[in-house]
Amino acid sequence: MALFDLPLDQLEQYRPPVEEPDDLDAFWARHLDAGRTRPVLLAAERVDTALTGVETWDVTFAGDAGHPIKAWFTRPAGTDDVVLPAVVEYLGYGRGRGFPQERLTWATAGYAHLLMDTRGQGGQHGSGGSTPDPVGSAPSAPGFLTRDVHDPETYYYRRLVIDAVRAVDAVRALPGVDRERVSVVGNSQGGGLALAVSGLVPDLAAVVASAPFLCHVRRALAITDAEPYAELTQHLAVHREAEEQALRTVAYVDGMHLVRRARADVLVATGLRDTVCPPSTVFAAYNHYGDLARDAGEAGPDREIAVYPYNHHEGGEGFHLDRQLRWLRARVLG
């Protein structure tokens, strides 16, 4: 894929006007308050992974509307009596939590690691998921982006963001976790969820988001026809009268809006040839990250962005994981 977006010098200065809903804060406060009326931990059962270096629990927690959400909780073996910093990880589009043996990086780096399953997903990539979505949808395009996109109250991604926040609540309720040192990480859809959570949970230790989805959605629709954004294009090609309402709904979950409220330091990554989550959409969120703190006269969170000029949606892969590990260690492990 050739370069198709703005030149890097323009991306670094790209701060599009914010068009967030007037009731954005009240909207999220209402849904967060409703979610937190229920106990968050529903079950945590130790599982045998046949691995000797880590210990794993099959966790169920109460997500949006109390729906049971599955997760794997993994920590270094022999640390039951040690309070560890935690990493909550969110998955990419179409993935489920798979097998606990598949994602060991953060636990073997010394963190307690909670890998959140994604409701209704797990049928497109990886080793499957374990969490059904009990909520139906009005007519939508194949995939998840347009499920109930005409109503922010029932929109799929509104519910998924609440799940993601409750995953932070869940890890903080587990034994042996340092509640003050919880970070969130993710790639693609997972990166978008990590950025959304950064604006809704004010006391995170750090945020790591690579090639984040659901940022500056209006821009994405204008410059890419790649999935998953193409789902919304396809849907609006049929429901021609619904554009204004659909874009208003998506604005509630747009990372460019939510990250303005972020307080935690962040490491972001983008590939300049990424048509799935175009670099200008990533820079739009990055450049607005922590705006409200700076507007209030505070220093605001530290921000770093890794740019991979010759990469598509795969970004820096293992090269960037090394940077993530070292970056997070410096901020959390000391």
UniProtKB/TrEMBL annotation:
Molecular functions (GO terms): carboxylic ester hydrolase activity
Listed InterPro entries: AB_hydrolase_fold, AXE1_dom, CE7
Domain Acetyl xylan esterase per the UniProt entry, residue ranges: 1-329
Active-site residues (renumbered): S188 (nucleophile), D274 (charge relay system), H313 (charge relay system)
Biased composition (Gly residues): 120-129
Region described as Disordered: 118-146
Annotated Gene3D superfamilies: alpha/beta hydrolase
Gene Ontology biological process terms from the UniProt entry: polysaccharide metabolic process
Pfam families linked to this entry: AXE1
Residue positions binding substrate: Y93
This protein's name: Acetylxylan esterase
Originating species: Actinotalea soli
